[in-house]
């Protein structure tokens, strides 16, 4: 067993070394600047994700939404009924949440809104927003934050974002919408969707089984 | 160069995370590993992926693991102090049951946390699964919904009478079963023996171990002792929902007594 794991680790080291010392052949990249600019973006990744492969992205968002619905339905019967004793809050965590939450939210919105110009985009921005909510949940307690966030409104926002995304996809397909503005809108909607999804999953996990 | 260094760091952190015996350190290792991996992506000119890896791998995944650890990483034990099987010596917890609990916790890779509570609190804590185990001179009572371990220390219930007056007991203790419902009860054995010393009650129904401790402490100079209930034993109680923990505890106790360790510990702590 030890021998096998040693071999596996050695193989992994060799593989990573080969990759990092560029021993693998690199594919020839076609001139991508013009292609990207034709979609109204500067960031090649955004041009692919929201332009050439928009349908992949939209259905990925749908899959994500399905996962959230699944978590909601599956965890509903396990939900605790009696209120849990709140954990003692540490002042350090609360201060950190006070100081960091604003920058996190601003940076996430910036990432979503500038995703077509540089690194960023809807998915990282949504994950960041979700992490910000998580920080708040750790500082305040998940149940209290869940009460303040009004789940029905979040749910409506989530489904609204999906409908808007699909509508935008139809617009691209039939009306030939293209350009930077479209990308900003799509990225913001995806960020909203991902952030709400991350929160819903965490909140349901936290209030059904564990504690925060 | 940065890529190579960070790749090596990533591998080292992965090995670190895999080899930790404490789950918490493993989770922290995985979190930092994600951060180093994000650095690798950054050096390989994929800042988008690096951002996502940092937010999800370091933020959300670490959090979900910590959430799971909160439920499984600790073995929470509700106990009342019982010299010499489970008691505090300054900051440290010592005693026969502690020796068993700490070794059992180590065998499950879980940290043992002892909550000192009055005996009457224990059934509620076990029923709501807020604690996994109960210990500390635990004598089961009828109607308590808990899984009982094999006997650890044999004992019996006795009545100690020091004078005239009603008999008292610790609230929720087995001794209460042998008293009328309106008998005076006290939160713990400390309070009971103080009431006895003040002459508030004429006697008490307690287990032999406590009676012996009081006698050695000089509280029962001319007390009269009559046995009430024989062939009892101190045990651990496991919350009814923790069947896996219960099975593991039974296996552990079986091995512990089969190897003669239990007899040796009893000798060491009780004589």
Helix amount of chain B? 40-55%
Radius of gyration of chain A equals 21 Å
Supply the helix-strand structural class of chain B. alpha/beta
Q: Main beta sheet of chain A: strand number and arrangement?
A: none
Molecular shape of chain B: elongated
Residue-averaged pLDDT of chain B: 86
* pLDDT averaged over residues of chain A: 83
Could you estimate the helical fraction of the residues of chain A in percent? Answer: over 70%
Number of strands of chain B: 11
| Strand content range of chain B | 15-25%
Could you give the count of β-strands of chain A? 0
What does this structure look like?
Chain A is an all-alpha fold and 212 residues long. In chain A, 76% of the residues lie in helices and 0% in strands. The radius of gyration of chain A is 21 Å and the shape is globular. The two termini of chain A are 38 Å apart. With 271 residues, chain B is α/β, with parallel strands linked by helices. In chain B, the strands form two sheets. In chain B, strands 1, 4, 5, 6, 7, 8, 9, 10 and 11 form a nine-stranded mixed beta sheet that branches. Chain B has a two-stranded antiparallel sheet with strand order 2-3. Chain B is elongated. Chain A binds chain B through residues 9, 12-13, 16-17, 20-21, 45, 82, 111, 118-121, 123-124, 127-128, 130-131, 134, 138, 198, 202, 205-206, 209-212, and chain B through 3-4, 7, 10-11, 15, 47-48, 50-52, 55-56, 59-60, 63-64, 67-68, 70-71, 128.
């Amino acid at each position: 067993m030890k021998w096998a794991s040693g071999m596996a680790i050695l193989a992994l080291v060799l593989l990573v070394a080969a990759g990092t010392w560029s021993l693998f052949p690199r594919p020839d990249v076609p001139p991508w600047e013009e292609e990207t600019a034709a979609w109204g973006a500067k960031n090649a990744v955004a041009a692919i994700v929201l332009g050439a492969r928009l349908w992949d992205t939209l259905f990925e968002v749908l899959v994500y939404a399905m996962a959230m619905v699944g978590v909601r339905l599956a965890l509903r019967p396990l939900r605790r009924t009696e209120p849990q004793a709140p954990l003692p809050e540490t002042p350090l965590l609360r201060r950190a949440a006070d100081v960091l939450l604003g920058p996190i939210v601003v940076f996430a919105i910036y990432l979503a809104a500038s995703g077509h110009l540089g690194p960023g985009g809807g998915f990282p921005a949504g994950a960041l927003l979700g992490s910000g909510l998580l920080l708040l949940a750790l500082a305040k307690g998940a149940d209290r934050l869940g009460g303040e966030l009004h789940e029905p409104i979040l749910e409506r926002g989530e489904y609204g974002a999906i409908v808007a995304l699909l509508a935008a996809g139809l617009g691209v397909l039939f009306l030939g919408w293209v350009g930077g503005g479209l990308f900003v809108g799509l990225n913001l909607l995806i960020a909203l969707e991902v952030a709400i999804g991350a929160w819903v999953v965490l909140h349901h996990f936290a209030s059904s089984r564990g504690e925060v | 160069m940065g890529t190579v260094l960070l790749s090596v760091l990533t591998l080292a952190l992965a090995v670190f995370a895999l080899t930790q015996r404490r789950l918490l350190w493993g989770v922290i290792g995985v979190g930092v590993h994600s951060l180093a991996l994000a650095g690798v992506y950054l050096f390989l000119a994929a800042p988008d992926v690096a951002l996502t890896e940092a937010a999800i791998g370091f933020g959300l995944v670490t959090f979900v693991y910590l959430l799971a650890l909160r439920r499984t990483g600790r073995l929470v034990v509700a106990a009342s102090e019982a010299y010499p099987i489970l008691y505090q010596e300054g900051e440290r917890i010592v005693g026969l049951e502690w020796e068993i609990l700490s070794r059992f916790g180590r065998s499950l890779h879980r940290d043992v946390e002892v909550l000192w509570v009055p005996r009457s609190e224990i059934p509620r804590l076990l029923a709501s699964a807020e604690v996994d185990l109960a210990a500390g001179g635990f004598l089961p009572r009828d109607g308590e919904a808990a899984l009982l371990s094999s006997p650890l220390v044999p004992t019996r219930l006795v009545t100690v009478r020091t004078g005239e007056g009603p008999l008292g007991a610790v609230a929720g203790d087995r001794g209460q079963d042998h008293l009328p419902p309106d008998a005076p009860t006290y939160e713990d054995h400390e309070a009971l023996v103080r009431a006895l010393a003040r002459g508030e009650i004429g006697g008490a129904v307690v287990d032999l171990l406590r009676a012996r401790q009081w006698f050695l402490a000089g509280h029962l100079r001319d007390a009269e002792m009559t046995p009430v209930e024989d062939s009892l034993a101190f045990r651990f109680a496991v919350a009814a929902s923790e069947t896996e923990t219960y099975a593991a505890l039974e296996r552990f106790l079986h091995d512990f007594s089969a190897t003669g360790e239990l007899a040796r510990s009893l000798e060491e702590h009780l004589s």
